[in-house]
Amino acid sequence: MKQALIIIDIQEAFFLDSQQNLWNDETIIKNINMVITWARHNEVPIIFIQHTEADDVDFAMGQPGWELYHGLLRQAQDKVIQKTTWDAFYQTDLAQYLNEQHIDQLIFAGAQTEFCLDTTIRSAFSHGYHHNILIEDAHSTLNSQVLAAPQIIQHHESVWRNRFVKIQPVEEFPNAH
C-alpha cells in the first residue's frame, strides 16, 4: 500500500499559552517528529493540515498562532493544505492530491483529538480509505469542561480502534528512532 503521513493542526496556537498547551505536548511533538523522520526515510509523502479561521484570532491567517509549530521537522517539499472546517477533505485539494499520488493508506497524527482529527479520520473512511493508521501518543487535545484530555483521547481511540483506524505505537515504525 502506498502511504501518506497526515499531520493535522499542529500549530503555534497550542503552544503560545502554557494554560492552553496540548496535553502531553512534548511527547506528542517528539513522536510526530520521529514518524516524520520515518516517512522521509521511506519516501512517504508528508502532508501538514493547517486550520485557517478568519473569525478566530488564534487561527486567522498570518497571526502567530496560525503558523505551523516551529518545532516540527517540516521541509519545503512537504505539502501544506489549509482548511476552514474540521474536515481536512472539505473544500480542500486533499482528496485530489491523494488521488494524484496514488495513496491508499493514511497515517494520522495531530490535534485536536475530538475535533479536526476525529472529523478527518471519519471523513477519510467515507472517502474510501479503509486501512488507515493512527499513531498512538502522536495526537492530543485540551481539557474540556466535561472531560480531561487523557479521557477524551482514550474515548476516541476506543471508538476508532479497528473501525476507522488501526492504532499503532510509534515504536512499531521501523527507523523512526
TrEMBL record:
UniProt KW Transit peptide keyword: no
The organism's place on the tree of life at top rank: Bacteria
Protein name: Cysteine hydrolase
Gene3D superfamilies: Isochorismatase-like
Protein family (similarity comment): Belongs to the isochorismatase family.
Species of the source: Lysinibacillus fusiformis
Matches recorded under Pfam families: Isochorismatase
Keyword Hydrolase: yes
Domain Isochorismatase-like: 4-144
Gene Ontology molecular function: any one: hydrolase activity
Keywords: Hydrolase
InterPro entries the record matches: Isochorismatase-like_dom, Isochorismatase-like_hydrls, Isochorismatase-like_sf
